[in-house]
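so my prof wants the structure for this chain in the tokens format not the other one, which i didnt know existed until like an hour ago. anyway here's the sequence
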Amino acid sequence: MYRLRVKDVLKERGVTQSWLARNTKVNESMIRRMVHDPNYMPSAATLAQVAKALHVPME
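here's what i got, hopefully its the right format
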């Protein structure tokens, strides 16, 4: 099992969920689920987009 660190990385980088949605072209509701729903498992492609926008490894 893995844990999404999207919330932590957003806070570290000082960016908002809205910014991430705009810069990844991922729906903002999906970003919210990544941040708030511990059981949500996005696709690898979505995770890759988010990791690229935040300049972090996908792992």
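also thought this was worth mentioning. The longest helix spans residues 44-54.
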